C-alpha cells in the first residue's frame, strides 16, 4: 500500500572498449598539456635562451642592470662573475646570472 513495487531494470549496456572510447577519455588531458606547453613552457624556454645569449655576449664597456636594480658599466668579465663600476672608482662584483638587462650605449650618461 505505501511501498511501491520494485521492477527489475534492463541489463546494462556493454562498455565501449574501442580505441575511440579510450582516446576520448584522455583527449582533455592531452589538450590541457598542449595548451600549457604553448602558454607556459615555451615562453619560459625562449626567455631563458635569450638570457643565456645575453650573458654570453657581455663585454667590457656594456651598461647593465642587475636583479637588485643597480645600474653600472661592466669593467671585467670572468666565467661566473662580472665586475661593474657603479660610480667613479666604485666597482662591485656580481654573479653573471644576476644581470637582467643590457642597456643601450650611453644610457647612464642621460640619467
UniProtKB/TrEMBL annotation:
InterPro entries per the UniProt record, alphabetical: Preprotein_translocase_YajC
Pfam family name, one: YajC
Principal location class: membrane
Key word Iron-sulfur present: no
Domain of life the protein comes from: Bacteria
Membrane topology (UniProt): Single-pass membrane protein
Positions of transmembrane segments: 20-39
Cellular localisation: Cell membrane
Record keyword Transport present: yes
Keyword line: Cell membrane, Membrane, Protein transport, Translocation, Transmembrane, Transmembrane helix, Transport
Entry-linked NCBIfam families: yajC
Family of this protein: Belongs to the YajC family.
Name by which UniProt lists this protein: Sec translocon accessory complex subunit YajC
Gene of this entry: yajC
Amino acid at each position: 500500500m505505501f511501498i511501491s513495487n520494485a521492477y527489475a531494470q534492463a541489463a546494462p549496456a556493454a562498455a565501449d572498449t574501442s580505441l575511440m572510447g579510450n582516446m576520448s577519455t584522455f583527449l582533455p588531458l592531452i589538450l590541457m598539456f598542449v595548451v600549457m606547453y604553448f602558454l607556459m613552457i615555451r615562453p619560459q624556454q625562449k626567455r631563458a635562451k635569450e638570457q643565456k645569449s645575453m650573458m654570453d655576449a657581455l663585454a667590457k664597456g656594456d651598461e647593465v642592470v642587475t636583479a637588485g636594480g643597480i645600474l653600472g658599466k661592466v669593467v671585467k668579465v670572468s666565467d661566473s662573475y662580472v665586475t661593474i663600476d657603479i660610480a667613479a672608482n666604485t666597482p662591485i662584483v656580481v654573479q653573471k646570472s644576476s644581470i637582467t638587462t643590457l642597456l643601450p650605449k650611453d644610457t647612464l650618461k642621460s640619467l
